User: Fold these one by one.
Assistant:
Number 1:
Amino acid sequence: MRFSEEFEKRYAEMVGHYPTKRSILVPSLLYAQDEVGYLSDEVIAELAKRTELTELEVRNVISYYSMLRTKPAGKYNVQVCTNISCLIRGGEEIYDHCKKKLGIGHKQVTADGMFSLEEVECIGACSWAPAMQVNYDFHENLTIAKMDKILEEYKQKA
Ligand code: FES
């Protein structure tokens, strides 16, 4: 398995900053996911080898973090928070609206591959609840009308 030069540069830099090889697993998984789109069997095998862990150990770590995925996501991965602050301020209604609008459920991808949807725990934007994250962009103080507008903007961008 070959990663890009940029990945290898980051990886080499990280190796020097962490006390053990296993410590670089999570950031390596994130960089690999950004590069490949998801954590394929090949990626898992490669990072297990590099960090001197078993593939099972790597998979256990992946299953713990909701932002890590072993299947391809849509071009825009919509993560709607329904944790307590967002829940109180309508997060669940926003999430239900997204499910209907996109025609998909949790961790599913639209047929055209444009959107994937996830219901997630707190994303650290409680003060501006209800909130969601699309790829690395945050959207806060959501309403159903605002959500429709945001999804439309992503469609136009694609
Ligand atoms: S509970 Fe939704 S961002 Fe914290």
Number 2:
Amino acid sequence: MEWFENEVLWRDLYPLMFPEERWVRAGNEVEWILALAETEIHSALDLCCGPGRHAIELVKKGIQVTGVDRTAFYLEKAREKAQHEGVEVEWVQSDMREFTRPESFDLALNMFTSFGYFENDEDDLTVLAGMYRNLRADGVLIMDMIGKECIAANFQETSSVEEPDGTVFIERRKVQDGWGRIDNEWILIRKGKVSKFCFQLAIYSGVEIRDRLRRVGFRDVKLLGDLQGAPYGWGARRLVVVARK
Ligand SMILES: C[S@@+](CC[C@H](N)C(=O)[O-])C[C@H]1O[C@@H](n2cnc3c(N)ncnc32)[C@H](O)[C@@H]1O
């Protein structure tokens, strides 16, 4: 089993990854995303939509949205949330490498480091090529991830935080493959119970992701340091990519 196929990992991480403030933030993020798109958006694909933070906010703007994710637990959460908010989203359970609906979307999103999950780098290219194929002509891709430069500038082998509910969250990291990958070990201590998850991420510098995007056909690739359009320079905490078909 590959690490991201482990449903227990996503279940256990849910409270940590999706606290209330991250849901609230998604409302602002969608405003910024639509400003970055610089074109009218009628249909959007949220690839690796998780519990639907951005998909639901996009639908509220009158956009037709398809949210794709492979984790059944997150899609259940997404359905519940959409129902609660009284909005309709198309939820599709699929691996990000396999979802295909050519020439169908004005906007493709891939948010919150939902990229670089595969052992084989060719699979990452497959994901990018898929998003290219699924966009209409002139469609826009927006990706948000933690860039290699951000990781290197703030690198800590071990860090820990205590969450408001008392959960202690320890992260251990190892640089692998000449800065091509990071091995992560996440240890959660919750009510005396210890859970440990290991996962590997391929990490991309701004220039590396731009190169990959151009290779699959994207043009006008912009590298930004956040969704509000800060430059991808020293001090950037995120790597945001805006590219056009
Ligand atoms: C860090 S979460 C981001 C969720 C969402 N984009 C957000 O911003 O809230 C990563 C998501 O990728 C999904 N995922 C992991 N591997 C996947 C794969 N191979 N195909 C499709 N989805 C995948 C997980 O289920 C999870 O929802």
